[in-house]
From TrEMBL:
UniProt keyword annotation of Cell cycle present: no
Keywords: Aminotransferase, Pyridoxal phosphate, Transferase
Any one GO MF annotation of this record: pyridoxal phosphate binding
Entry protein name: Aminotransferase class III-fold pyridoxal phosphate-dependent enzyme
Coiled-coil ranges from the UniProt annotation: none
Family annotation (SUPFAM superfamilies): PLP-dependent transferases (SSF53383)
InterPro entries to which the protein is assigned, alphabetical: Aminotrans_3 (IPR005814), Aminotrans_3_PPA_site (IPR049704), PyrdxlP-dep_Trfase (IPR015424), PyrdxlP-dep_Trfase_major (IPR015421), PyrdxlP-dep_Trfase_small (IPR015422)
A Pfam family that the UniProt record links to this protein: Aminotran_3
Family assignment from sequence similarity: Belongs to the class-III pyridoxal-phosphate-dependent aminotransferase family.
Cofactor(s) the protein needs: pyridoxal 5'-phosphate
Amino acid sequence: MDGALNENDISGIIEADRAHVWHHMSQHKPYETTDPRVMVEGKGIHVWDAKGTRYLDGVSGGVWTVNVGYGRESIADAVRDQLVKLNYFAGSAGSIPGALFAKRLIEKMPGLSRVYYNNSGSEANEKAFKMVRQIAHKRYGGKKHKILFRERDYHGTTIACLSAGGQPERNAQYGPFTPGFVEVPHCLAYRAHEQGLENAANYGELAANAIEEVILREGPDTIGALCLEPVTAGGGVIAPPEGYWPRVQEICRKYDILLHIDEVVCGLGRTGTWFGYQNYGIEPDMVTMAKGVASGYAAIACLVTTEKVFDMFKDDSTDPLNYFRDISTFGGCTAGPAAALENIRIIEDEGLLDNTLAMGTRLMMRLEELKEKHKVVGDVRGKGLFCGAELVADRLTKEPVAEKLAQQVVAECSAQGVLIGVTNRSLPGRNNTLCLSPALIATEDNIDEIAAAMDVALTRVFG
């Protein structure tokens, strides 16, 4: 066929990409003179681009997704077999993999009981917001409809999710936003001085108390839910300080506020537990997840709730609007739960939660060594294989380095064949945290290679 391409015509593939693909999160003007990066293969923790360059992937697919690594034939086989048997049916009916995965998932989440399938993390959070709003109308005359979100947290790309997003640069140029979303302060202890709390021994509790202050200001009878990441991801890899989560839980129960935990990044092992919230003894009402649920082998996202939340939508009245009137077209795809079932089996059988804890400890040790060597590293933090290093121009004032300098460190690591991440175009003047999230299969040698590349990169950029 005239103009046909095949996968071996690499130059043609690159030109087709340049001419027709609109990349995510990218300014395309530079592609007029330079080639876009095209990835062609992955195996284990490594990926190869179209030019044959091999990279150690320290960010699990660029966005914290490929938790069990690349090239898992057993997941691909499970997806293939399921697609041949039944590829899709609308979520108004069930499916065998949907039922089986829901049961396996709930076994990992004591206290929760219901799984609502979606196709992306943004959509899962949208569903949660809609449930909160419908509960407000069904039970509170529409009044208890406001949703609290935290400064620096991120919950997705849709307008409603951006309305609940604490990253101003991601929100810029997309307003006006959905009303009824209210921000609460961040809980980053390293920047407690910006909140006037730098000398507080109980910073975690005080950071949580700041949420209660917002609730009292807005009116507790107007607040339906509080939506938080267990560990803030793109806002700077912020592991919550001691005392924070118990106080948050207490506040939510005090004012009858649903606690919605966004596990889109942390879910399925990233922090060394099945879910990030399980590190802190939290008992959420709603949990959303996506990225690591099937490690990127198929699209799947879930909103999981307690039976109490589910029962709020049971209704035998004659009101035609008495149920959760929502559908996710591709939430009915069977490939997602089929892949997710095999993904869970791999994590269990290969002991990847234990490996995540061990390699996470090693990664933090290596980051501490970098902090000792490089004055530009102001703070290192994280949980499991989800870590960050905040770069500062001055350790005393904690003035952040310019975003372009942090991005140069990423570029220098890439030049050495190691991919790492960085907060970018999210927080005005605060896009200065290097982000690390290698696959849960990472070895000691992988961790050491990441740290060595960062060492060289920091030296090249900052001396």
